[in-house]
């Protein structure tokens, strides 16, 4: 069986940047179970998994455009320091906005704080080492709910 739209695949993966730094991995954890073709993964990852079969081991290189996007200067914003109250602000701190997005502090000034709403991996080329462990057809209930049920998935 091949990974195609509406199949459930279980994979192990290690994600690195172009310098070989490990950014994420399923090593030592349960494999990732997902429904293929409904947007559960970044587009470049789904493209690289399409048509693969159980037992395949391979690499996927994902451009920023097919990953977490390119960095956008439009997502940088200067916020008055007063908006943070008496809280000590440091580079790299993250805050959730009232709209639910996460911003990262990139510059701390006397009167303003610069925050970046780009995804932390925006602009980064991603390298996945992948092994396909199993593939099956998604159930109607999984497709309706938009996620995998049972082992490796959601339990209702």
Task: Looking at this protein, list some descriptive labels.
156 residues, mainly beta, Chitinase A, domain 3, 2 domains, five-stranded antiparallel beta sheet, four-stranded antiparallel beta sheet
Question: Can you offer a commentary on this structure?
Answer:
With 156 residues, this protein is mainly beta. It folds into two domains: 7-68 and 122-145, Chitinase A, domain 3 (Roll), CATH 3.10.50; 73-116, Thrombin, subunit H (Beta Barrel). Helices cover 8% and strands 36% of the residues. The protein is built from two helices and nine strands; from the N terminus they run E-E-E-H-E-E-E-E-E-E-H. The strands form two sheets. Strands 1, 2, 3, 4 and 9 form a five-stranded antiparallel beta sheet that branches. A four-stranded antiparallel beta sheet has the order 5-8-7-6, with no helix packed on it. Strand 7 (102-108) and strand 8 (112-116) form a beta hairpin. The longest helix has 7 residues, at 43-49. The two termini are 28 Å apart.
């Amino acid at each position: 069986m091949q990974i195609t739209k509406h199949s459930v695949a279980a994979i192990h993966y290690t994600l690195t940047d172009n310098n070989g730094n490990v950014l994420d991995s399923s090593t030592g954890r349960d494999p990732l179970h997902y429904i293929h073709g409904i947007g559960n993964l970044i587009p470049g990852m789904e493209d690289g998994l399409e048509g693969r079969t159980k037992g395949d081991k391979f690499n996927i290189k994902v451009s920023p455009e097919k990953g977490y996007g390119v960095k956008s200067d439009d997502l940088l914003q200067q916020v008055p320091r007063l908006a943070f109250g008496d809280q000590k602000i440091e580079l790299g701190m993250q805050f959730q906005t009232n709209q639910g997005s996460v911003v990262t502090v990139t510059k701390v000034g006397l009167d303003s704080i610069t925050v970046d709403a780009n995804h932390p991996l925006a602009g980064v080329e991603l390298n996945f080492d992948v092994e396909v462990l199993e593939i099956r057809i998604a159930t109607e209930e999984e497709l309706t709910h938009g996620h995998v049920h049972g082992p490796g998935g959601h339990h209702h």
